[in-house]
Each structure stands twice: as structure tokens, then as C-alpha cells.
Amino acid sequence: MIEFDTKIFRLGRLCKNGHDFNGLGQSIRYQSNGRCIDCMTDTKPYIKREKHPVPEHLIGTFDPLLFRLGSLCRNGHDFNGSGKTLRKIDGGHCLDCLRDYKQSYYQENRETVLAKQAAHRQANLEEVRLRKRKWYRDHREEHLQQCAEYREKNKEKIAARRALYYQRNKEKRAEWNAKYQRENRDKLRVSRAQYYQKNKEILAQKSVEYRARNAEALRGCLKSRVNSRKAHSV
Predict the structure, then answer these.
(1) Residues 6+ apart with CB under 8 A from 85
(2) Residue 145 — very low, low, confident or very high, per pLDDT cuts 50/70/90?
(3) pLDDT in tens, 60-70
(4) CA–CA separation, 127 vs 137, rounded Å?
(5) In angstroms, what CA-CA distances link 31 with 7, 9, 229?
(6) How far apart are CA 97 and CA 91, in angstroms?
(7) Are the CB atoms for 71 and 84 separated by under 8 Å?
């Protein structure tokens, strides 16, 4: 796919010859001198221009470098009531038709798709890892915001999933926790001390509230300890 290189070109005001880019009322211009590239070349090798202008209320709802509004597809996928279909510039395919096809194909070939994906990840571990790191760096704030919103909306679902996982992996988690604590005692001691210093007042308040809620149970526990010590001393 031929892309619009923003390091070399930009969108600017409509040129005197009316070279309109995707119906946005702007021309593609060079960054260096601001000249319209369609005025300077006869080949126009970049992106197919849309014949009809984009309605004003739809400007900004899709990336004009990747997509365009075209004739209504055979499945009648109307984009935001415009009477037109949102299509890929590369190939002209309807986005909704592509999405429906991919979903249908995945449902019919789920095991095969998952097996191919797993094999690809295993064969390209380093490449996949680097790509994920780059994506996270580029979308960190957006990703964290989405995660926070998901956790807020799905607290009960997340709690149930964690409880189920813990029940199924109780022994495995216990072994892992014991091993981690043995190998990181000094690190954990420092971390706990730092946490206590930063949250001393909050922890003290929680301790007071806990004792108030569980006064009877704590008195019973204390009596049990006292009786046990007396029995041992005798």
C-alpha cells in the first residue's frame, strides 16, 4: 500500500487548480516549499482521490490516508447515514464486509487459527516481544486508561475469575509464593518497610477499624492463648 509520508508532505489549503484530497477541501503539499504535488506532477502516484466531498459532519471520523467513502456495498453497509460505504483506499474493500468475513472465518476455523498464531509466536518470540514493547510505548496512556475503565466496569467478573484461578492452582501458587519469599527475603523486607513508612497512618486506621469489627473474636483468641500458656506452665 502506498502511504502518505508526513515527513515529506502535508495537507494544506486548496490549490488554485482545485486539487482536492479525498473531498477534504485541501491539497497535498510538500513540507519544504508548500507546493501542491498534483500541480507539479502528471502521474499523481499517491492516493486515489474521492470523487464526492466528505460531508462536513463526517470529517475526522476516519483516517483519510487509509480509508475513503465509496459506493454502497452489496451488503448495504451505510457509514454513519451518509448513504456510502467506508472502504479501504488499498483495494477498495468495504471495512464492514471484511470484518464480518474475518469473524465468520475465525468461528469456523478457530482451532486452526489459534494453532497458527501460537506457532508464529513461538517461531518469532523476539520479534513479537519487540513489537509489543513498541506498541506499549506508543499507546501507554491510552492502554492504562482502557485497563482502568475495564477494571471499574468488571469488578465482580475479575474477582470471580481470580478466585476460580486460585482454586484451580492453589498448590502451584503456594509453592511459587514460598519459593519467591525464600529467594527475595531482603528485597521483600525493604519493600514492606518502605510501604509501611509511606502508609503508616492509613495502616493504623485500618488496624483500629479491624479491632473494632472483630473485638469478640480477638478476645476469644487472647483467652485461648492465655489458657494454652497456663496449661504448658503446669
Answers:
(1) 69, 70, 71, 72, 73, 77, 78, 79, 94, 96
(2) very high
(3) 888 887 888 88
(4) 15
(5) 7, 5, 86
(6) 13
(7) yes
